Amino acid sequence: MKKLSIISKNKCLIVLFTIEILTMCVHAQTKECGTKISQEQLDYYYRTRESRRQLADQLKQERSISYFYAPVQFHVVRENDGSGGLTEADLITILNDLNTNFLDAKIQFFQCGQPEWINSSANYNFDSDNEESFCSDHDVANVINIYCFNSVIDDGTSVCGYSRNPPSVDRAIFKNSCVTGGNTTHIHEIGHYFSLFHTFGKGNDCTFWHPCNEKVDGSNCNTAGDDICDTPADPGVNTTSGCGSESNCLYSGSCTDGNGDTYSPPITNFMSYSSSSCRTNFTNDQDDVMHASALSDRDYLSCPLLSSCASTLSLSGTQNSEYYYQASDEITSTSIITSGVYSSYHAGNSVMLEIGFNASEGSHFHASIDGCWGTDIFRQSNDQSHHISIPNSELVVRPNPFLETFEVAIELNQGAIVSIDLYNVFGQHILTIQDGASKEEGLVNYSVNASTLPAGVYMIHVVINGKAFEKRIVKID
Ligand SMILES: [Zn+2]
Description:
This protein is an alpha/beta fold. The chain has helices spanning about 40-60, 90-100, 120-125, 130-135, 185-195, 285-295, 305; strands at about 5-10, 70-80, 105-110, 115-120, 125, 145-150, 150-155, 155-160, 160, 170-175, 245, 250, 310-315, 320, 325-335, 335, 340-345, 350-355, 360, 365-370, 395-400, 405-410, 415-425, 430-440, 440-450, 455-465, 465-475. It is globular and about 70 Å long.
């Protein structure tokens, strides 16, 4: 154990401890995925297919795409007496798994609040018929609500989990044994949440409605299977009505497509129905689809705790899960940060680690004198110069994505000089919305007609009294 005591009134102070956690376990036999695509979701997908493809192509060409930070709320269901269920260490492993495997998609996950521990034997083994009544009591708005159960029954069958393609509620349902011990259901299901289909097609099986009809030669890869061309054609390996199965991470079928070509399906892909532990990768095109989906379908995700900025924070008790704290003036702490946990303090003037504070060996602890960052707290490592928060000022851009016009609304807590400009993803200036005008305290509103711009991603760059702030906006057609 290492003890640490620091007082600083200076500009910058960083303390860091690092460890890695590895766990191994055994996989339980259960149907891999209960995610079903509704007609509404399919209609939405087909309606937006071309514009999201253009957006994905545009993002692919851009060299340094900003990360999309997705707030997560864990809900861990246990027996009435508090026994059973996942541990905090399990949740951190799940989060680490997601962050590792969504890194190339430029999507990163963080806990917006402490995990919720729900003691309910009635739901410990969960039936999806009860989802609405149970989950609606626990959901947190505008974050990804991840529910972890001992088992999950869907339509009378045990499943490893399910989520939903957009548009949908912000939920993912997991069976504990399928998301721990090297299993990958959590990565698969969050892939659905960001618009991915199974590699064999848009259903859970190969049926008349959802045929597994992608050709091996790639000739129809834009409109068959998962509509993604760098995932090889999959004849529905390991599905009940597909062709061929996987054994020990090898494809054992000899099925051929309509041209007589033999399949070589993507057994290691997270969105296949291969054994959980065989799945290790997304393709580049899948990464692009997910990033575009984050920007166009899930842009409303936000963490209110990170948007608020208290003057002072006083922390105590044991911190068992990843968390970010920020205060405009001072943070004092007697917390114990447990091994494997990431903790980050950001204060305007001082961080005071008092007697009792303990960053355990193996924890990650970071403190800096840089004040409140809002949700931009995660962007510091990417670009220190661009992302400066506006304390107590709110910037809203809506609707996002937009078709022709959008509104920029800024709530100023004091009079300020305001400039607003629009840039494309290549950093080229497109439009001046406000050229350095003096504005009084209160709400400042701009309606912007951008109907002549091509569809794509743009950045709204706002400067208030010399401090810069950026917000991404997406135009669709
Ligand atoms: Zn699935």
